[in-house]
Amino acid sequence: DPGEDLCDAAVREVQEETGIQTDFDCVAAIRETQSGPFGCADLYAVCLLRLSEAAYGKAAASAASPSAAAPEPRPQESEIASCEWRDLEDLLGSKYYAKGLYGALIRTACDVALRR
């Protein structure tokens, strides 16, 4: 939204599109190009969010991976077709992220998350 902080936008978008309440941790990876679509700069940021401790409790918010206690994501049908928790290794090995620029950004973000 116009004038919105990146941190607030990431949290809001996840809430709107999945129903999951999160807290912002950090920007884990970023890519910028000056030759983006529509003749303008294009910024792609991967943000590290954690389950909201206030909404789900300390145990869920500090878990290294989603568990049975993790909330079930619900897709906002007007924005996304589906959403689900994924095993990290399966995600990184998928045809979408196994190689290429976006795969490298996601792997970098995962490295950041695992170190925190």
Write a structural description.
The protein has 5 helices and 2 strands. With 116 residues, it is of the alpha+beta class. The protein has a two-stranded antiparallel ribbon. A hairpin with an 8-residue loop joins strand 1 and strand 2. The model has no long low-confidence stretch (mean pLDDT 89).
Radius of gyration: 15 Å
Query: What spatial form do the alpha-carbon principal axes imply?
Result: globular
> What's the helix count?
5
State the low-pLDDT regions, or none.
none
Please state roughly what percent of the residues sit in beta strands, choosing from under 5%, 5-15%, 15-25%, 25-35%, 35-45% or over 45%. 15-25%
The largest sheet is: 2 strands, antiparallel
How would you state the average pLDDT, rounded?
A: 89
How many beta-strand elements? 2
- Sheet with the most strands: spatial strand order: 1-2
Helix content: 25-40%
Task: Give the helices and strands as they follow along the chain.
Answer: HEEHHHH
Distance between the termini: 29 Å
Coarse structural class: alpha+beta
Main features:
5 helices, 19% strand, 116 residues, globular, two-stranded antiparallel sheet, alpha+beta
Q: Briefly, what is this?
A:
With 116 residues, the protein is α+β, with helices and mostly antiparallel strands. It is built from 5 helices and 2 strands; from the N terminus they run αββαααα.
